[in-house]
Amino acid sequence: MKNIITIDGPVGTGKSSVSWSVSKRLNYHYLNSGVIYRIAAYYVLNNIYTSNQISEIVDQLNNDSIEFVTHPKNSKDYMVLLNGEDITSKVTSESYGNLASQISQSKVLREGLIKKQRDFDHESGLVADGRDMGSKIFPEARIKIFLTASPEVRAKRRYQQLINKGIDANLEDICDDITNRDFNDMHRSVSPMVVPKGAYLIDSSEYTFDEVVSQVIEVSEAMSGA
User: Fold this and answer.
1) Which secondary structure element, helix H or strand E, spans residue 224, and what is its range?
2) In angstroms, rounded to a whole number, what is the distance separating the alpha carbons of residues 174 and 166?
3) How far apart are the C-alpha atoms of 120 and 31, rounded to whole Å?
4) 148 CB-side CA count, 13 A
5) What is the rounded CA–CA span in Å between residue 80 and residue 82?
6) Which residues pair with 203 in a beta bridge?
7) What is the DSSP track for 23-88?
8) pLDDT in tens, 140-176
9) What residue spans define the domains of the chain?
10) What CA–CA distance (Å, rounded) separates 39 from 66?
11) Phi/psi of residue 170, nearest 5 degrees
12) What predicted TM-score, i.e. pTM, was given to this entire model?
């Protein structure tokens, strides 16, 4: 798994944007594992399945086509295609994120989606971002990054990100949401968020986006040549 880069970390660290940018710089494929759980939330919130139909949701997701493609109006961003339909604006809302954080604690859901995520591996390379990419999904990945930042910085970044996308947001609510989701991610019984063994830790609190991307590229190049 020499060509797999895992980038894990808590919500609001900017890891999805960083991971996408790194994947484009290296011409690698991209996986945002959190989106898969948000699609599970999408099915529940749109009354396609109930939150008790986890096995059915797993079967649905394993049969779905999920793609991450360059946004036609902004090459620095991506779109999420579910069976060919653009659902980006739907799955990036806070309501989907909150529910995804809750239902992703299900052992049946997490275990049932391992192969789905591993199937994103590609001969040209893969950048996989999430909470357990380096510890659970791709434990043999040679390059593992754990991206973090202070809760205050993460809340402000998430707030600005939503505002820039035209989505109403409340900074205090986002702070509370980050606290709750951190707790859920670190304390769930199945595949909790941890710093993967051998991972390189980057605290992005004092760095710009471009500086973080450059750090990841530098670490990747250094470790690839090791």
Assistant:
1) helix 209-224
2) 16
3) 7
4) 13
5) 7
6) 148
7) HHHHT-EEEEHHHHHHHHHHHHHTTSS-TT-HHHHHHHHHHS-EEEEEETTEEEEEEEEETTEE-H
8) 998 999 999 998 999 998 888 788 877 788 899 999 8
9) 4-221
10) 9
11) -125, 120
12) 0.89
How far is residue 95 from each of residues 163, 173, 176, 186, measured CA to CA in Å?
15, 12, 13, 20
Residue 87 to residue 170: CA distance in whole angstroms: 23
CB neighbour class for 102 (10 Å; exposed up to 12, middle 13-18, buried from 19): middle
Q: Which of 105-119, 121-135, 191-205 has the lowest mean pLDDT?
A: 191-205
Q: Which CATH architecture has domain 4-221?
A: 3-Layer(aba) Sandwich (3.40)
Measured CA to CA in angstroms, residue 11 lies from 149, 154, 195 at distances of 10, 7, 14
Report the C-alpha gap between 32 and 15 in whole angstroms: 9
Confidence of residue 111 (pLDDT cuts 50, 70, 90): very high
Burial of 84 (0-12, 13-18, 19+ CB in 10 A): exposed
C-alpha 50, offset from chain centre: 23
Q: Within a 10 A sphere around the Cβ of 213, how many other Cβ atoms?
A: 20
In the block, residue with structure tokens 């809760």: 151
Q: Provide the token pair at 82.
A: 């579910």
Q: What would the two tokens of residue 33 be?
A: 């594992």
134 by Cβ neighbours in 10 Å (0-12 / 13-18 / 19+) ranks as buried
- Name, in order, each residue with C-beta under 8 angstroms of 27's C-beta and a sequence gap of 6 or more: 124, 125
